[in-house]
Amino acid sequence: MSVKHIFIIGSKGIPACHGSFETFVDNLAANKKKEYIKYNVACLGLKNEEFTHNSAHCFRIKVPRFLGSVRAVVYDILAVRKVSGGC
Predict the structure, then answer these.
(1) Does residue 64 have a cis peptide bond before it, meaning omega lies within 30 degrees of 0?
(2) Which of 24, 46, 70, 85 sees the fewest Cβ atoms within 10 Å?
(3) Where are the beta strands (DSSP E) in the chain?
(4) How many domains does the chain have?
């Protein structure tokens, strides 16, 4: 069976330390039952980097703090561009 990639964006990332959606994503990755499922999780960060957490491929999206509340919108747009191959 081929690998099924599931991309999760919109959370601040894992490991969970921000809220209930992040905790849900962290637990989803930690309790994965099927080996052919690969979770890919966007994480808000201060630098672009990739890492693995609970077998999920995590990628940080760098978004400057000075953007204030617009930072969340910019983060979501950059995460969508990254997973769609546009970044």
Answers:
(1) no
(2) 85
(3) 4-8, 37-45, 49-53, 56-62
(4) 1
